[in-house]
Design goal:
The complex is a heterodimer of chains A (about 450) and B (about 120).
Chain A lengths: L17 H21 L14 E2 L2 H8 L1 H24 L8 H11 L1 H8 L2 H5 L1 H12 L18 H15 L7 H22 L2 H6 L1 H10 L4 E3 L5 E3 L2 H6 L7 H17 L3 H10 L3 H31 L6 H4 L4 H27 L25 H30 L2 H28 L1
Antiparallel strand pairs in A: 1-3, 2-3
Helix pairs in contact in A: 1-18, 1-19, 3-7, 4-17, 5-11, 8-11, 8-13, 13-15, 13-17, 15-19, 17-18, 17-19, 18-19
Chain B lengths: L1 H31 L7 E9 L2 E3 L4 E4 L4 E8 L3 E5 L4 E5 L5 E6 L4 E7 L5 E7 L1
Parallel strand pairs in B: 1-4, 3-9
Antiparallel strand pairs in B: 1-2, 4-7, 5-6, 5-8, 8-9
The chains are: A mainly alpha (about 450), B alpha+beta (about 120).
C-alpha cells in the first residue's frame, strides 16, 4: 500500500486470516451458483427504470437550481485553491498535507462520495469550471470546441489518465514529494484543458480520468438521473447496467481492478524481496509489474468473454464491451477492502494537517489538534469488512453479467454462455482474497 | 420487481451471514493471541551492498510484546519503523538498536531512508 511522505503514517491492515479468505471464496462460489440458477430468467435491469421512485420535490428543486450548481462549482474551486496553498507554498515535509489530500482524501475519498451521491467529480471538477468561466468571459458556448469529439475516442483518454495516475501512486519515484505531485498535476491540467478547448466541455465526461472514475463508481449510487434527466431513487444495479458500451471502457474498468491488485501484490514480501535483490531499479520493475498485472486481468477478461460469446452464440466481438459494467462492482469492492483503513486513519491525519498547509503552526480550520482514532475497529472487524465488500461486489458483478447475458445470448444458449463469466468472477474474487491474505 | 428486490436482499443476507461467521472465527483467533508473552522479540538485520540479511519477510509479534531491532549497515543511513515512527541513525559497521512496545495492531514496514530498502514487515496481532 501507499506509504506517504518520508516514512510517516505507516500502519497497514493485517493480512486477512486464511480461514477468512477461504470462507469468503466458498460463499462467493455458492452465492454465484444461487444467483445464476434461481435469480431470474429474463433481463430486468436498466430498462425504462420503471421501478425508480422520484426524489422528493424539495431535493429535486435544490439540486436542479442554477445557484446550487454554482455553489458546488465554487466549492470545488475553493478546495482546489486551498490545496494549491500547500502544494505551491508549503515546505516539502511530511507535515505538509498535500500528498495526503491528493492520494487519500481526493482519490480514495471519491469512492464513498460517488457511491453515495453519484458522479460528484463532474459537479466539482475545478478544471471544468475554469473552462466554463473562460468560455463565459469569451462569450463562447462551452460545449462547442474547435472540432467535434471523435466517436472512436470514447474512454481511451480517461484510461490513459487513469494509468498515469495509478503509475504515479504505486510506482512513481518520490511520488509523495511536492515537485512530483505538482509536475504531474500541472501536466494533467494542461492536457485536460487543451482537450476541452479542442473538443468542448463534452471532453471531460469521458476524457478526464477522475470524472470517469467518479462516474463509474457513482452508477452504484442509490440516487441518479433517468434517461430523461429526472432525479430518482433507484436500484444501484439499474444504475450500473445503464453504463453504455463505449471504446476504451474495457480498458478503463480493467485498469481500475488491475492497479488495485498490483498494489496488494507489491506489498507481499516475495515481491519486495524480488525487487530489492534483482539489482534492477525499482521504478523499472514496478512499472513492469503494474503492466503485467493489468495485462493478466485484461487477458482473463478478454479470453473468458470471448469464450462466453462463442458458447452463448452472441455476435462476435460484442461480449467484452457489453459486460464491462459487471467488473465495476468487483473493482469497487476491492478498492473499499484495500483502502478503507487508509481513508479512515490517514484521512483523519490529513484533515488535522490541513489546518496548517504552510507548516508554520497555524490552525486555520480548527482541526490542528485532531488525533487519529481507530473508531473501535479491531483487526477482526476490518478483515470481516474486507471479505464482505469483496463478496458483495462479486455478487453484484455476477448478477449484472447474468442479466446482460440474458439480453445478449439467445435463450437456448444463455446458460452455457454464462459459465465462462462465472469462472471469471470467481477467479477475480479468489485472486482478490488471496492477495489480501498474502499482502 | 418486489420479488427481485427481496431475492437480492436474501443474497445480501447470505453474504453477510458468511462474513459474520468468518468474523466470529477471526475474533476467536484474536482472543487467543491477546495474552502477550513477556519475552522480548529480538530482530537483527544486516545490510551489505544493498543486500538485506535475512531477506525481507514478515516478523510476527503479539500485541503488547517488546520489540528490539538491531540494524547493522555498511553505509550511513537512517532506519525507521512506519506507524510507530521509531528510528535510529545508522553509522557504517556499527549496530544501532530500536526498542519499543508493539502496542498497536497492524502491519508496519521497517525500512531505511537513504537507500530505500525494506528490512522487514512487522506484523502485530
Amino acid at each position: 500500500m501507499l506509504t506517504l511522505a518520508h516514512g510517516i503514517g505507516g500502519r497497514q491492515d493485517l493480512p486477512i486470516p486464511f480461514v477468512a479468505a477461504l470462507i469468503g471464496a466458498v460463499v462467493a462460489l455458492l452465492v454465484s451458483f444461487a444467483g445464476l440458477g434461481v435469480l431470474w430468467t429474463e433481463p430486468r435491469l436498466a430498462g425504462a427504470l420503471q421501478y425508480a421512485r422520484p426524489v422528493a420535490a424539495g431535493i429535486r428543486g435544490l439540486v436542479n437550481a442554477a445557484a446550487w450548481r454554482w455553489a458546488v462549482r465554487v466549492a470545488g474551486l475553493l478546495a482546489a485553491a486551498y490545496f494549491c496553498v500547500g502544494l505551491l507554498f508549503g515546505p516539502d515535509r511530511a507535515a505538509n498535507p498535500t500528498a495526503g489530500v491528493f492520494y487519500v482524501l481526493f482519490w480514495v475519498g471519491l469512492v464513498p462520495l460517488s457511491l453515495l451521491f453519484g458522479p460528484v467529480w463532474r459537479a466539482l471538477n475545478p478544471l471544468r469550471t475554469l473552462h466554463l468561466l473562460a468560455c463565459a468571459a469569451l462569450r463562447r458556448d462551452p460545449r462547442r470546441g474547435m472540432r467535434p469529439l471523435p466517436e472512436g475516442l470514447g474512454y481511451w483518454p480517461a484510461a490513459a489518465g487513469l494509468f498515469a495516475f495509478t503509475w504515479l501512486e504505486l510506482v512513481g519515484p518520490e511520488r509523495a514529494t511536492l515537485p512530483v505531485i505538482g509536475a504531474w498535476l500541472a501536466t494533467y491540467s494542461v492536457v485536460m484543458l487543451a482537450g476541452a478547448v479542442v473538443f468542448g466541455s463534452g471532453w471531460f465526461g469521458k476524457g478526464d480520468a477522475f470524472e470517469a472514475y467518479s462516474d463509474l463508481i457513482g452508477r452504484l449510487a442509490p440516487i441518479g438521473r433517468n434517461p430523461d434527466g429526472a432525479l430518482t431513487w433507484r436500484n444501484p444495479l439499474d444504475g450500473m447496467a445503464g453504463l453504455e458500451r463505449a471504446p476504451g471502457l474495457v480498458a478503463l474498468v480493467v485498469l481500475l481492478l488491475g492497479s488495485t491488485m498490483y498494489d496488494s501484490l507489491s506489498n507481499a514480501p516475495i515481491w519486495v524481496r524480488f525487487i530489492q535483490e534483482s539489482g534492477i531499479p525499482a521504478p523499472v520493475l514496478g512499472t513492469a509489474g503494474l503492466v503485467v498485472v493489468i495485462g493478466l486481468v485484461l487477458a482473463a477478461y478478454l479470453a473468458t468473454t470471448a469464450w462466453a460469446g462463442r458458447l452463448g452464440g452472441a455476435e462476435p466481438g460484442r461480449t467484452a464491451g457489453e459486460l464491462a459494467h459487471s467488473i465495476v462492482p468487483i473493482a469497487v469492492g476491492y478498492l473499499i477492502a484495500h483502502y478503507f483503513t487508509l481513508l479512515l486513519l490517514e484521512g483523519q491525519r490529513t484533515l488535522a494537517l490541513l489546518s496548517d498547509p504552510l507548516v508554520v503552526g497555524a490552525d486555520w480550520l480548527g482541526t490542528a489538534g485532531w488525533t487519529v482514532s481507530a473508531a473501535g475497529l479491531s483487526p477482526a472487524s476490518i478483515a470481516m469488512l474486507q471479505v464482505t465488500v469483496i463478496i458483495v461486489g462479486h455478487v453484484m458483478g455476477t448478477v449484472l453479467a447474468h442479466d446482460r447475458a440474458l439480453a445478449l445470448f439467445p435463450r437456448r444458449t444463455a446458460v452455457m454462455g454464462q459459465i465462462p463469466l462465472l469462472v471469471l468472477m470467481v477467479v477475480y474474487t479468489v485472486t482478490g482474497l488471496m492477495l489480501l491474505f498474502a499482502a | 420487481m418486489r420479488l427481485f428486490a427481496s431475492r437480492i436482499r436474501l443474497l445480501a443476507t447470505g453474504a453477510l451471514l458468511g462474513a459474520t461467521l468468518l468474523g466470529a472465527s477471526a475474533c476467536g483467533g484474536a482472543d487467543a493471541g491477546a495474552s502477550a508473552p513477556a519475552t522480548v522479540k529480538e530482530i537483527a538485520v544486516t545490510i551489505k551492498g544493498r543486500a538485506v540479511t535475512p531477506p525481507p519477510g514478515r516478523v510476527e509479534v503479539a500485541k503488547g510484546q517488546k520489540v528490539k531491532i538491531t540494524v547493522t549497515s555498511d553505509v550511513a543511513d537512517e532506519a525507521h519503523v512506519h506507524g510507530y515512527d521509531k528510528g535510529a541513525d545508522l553509522q557504517p559497521g556499527t549496530p544501532a538498536t530500536i526498542e519499543f512496545v508493539a502496542d498497536q495492531t497492524g502491519l508496519f514496514e521497517a525500512e531505511t531512508h537513504e537507500q530505500e530498502l525494506q528490512l522487514f514487515q512487522l506484523v502485530v496481532r
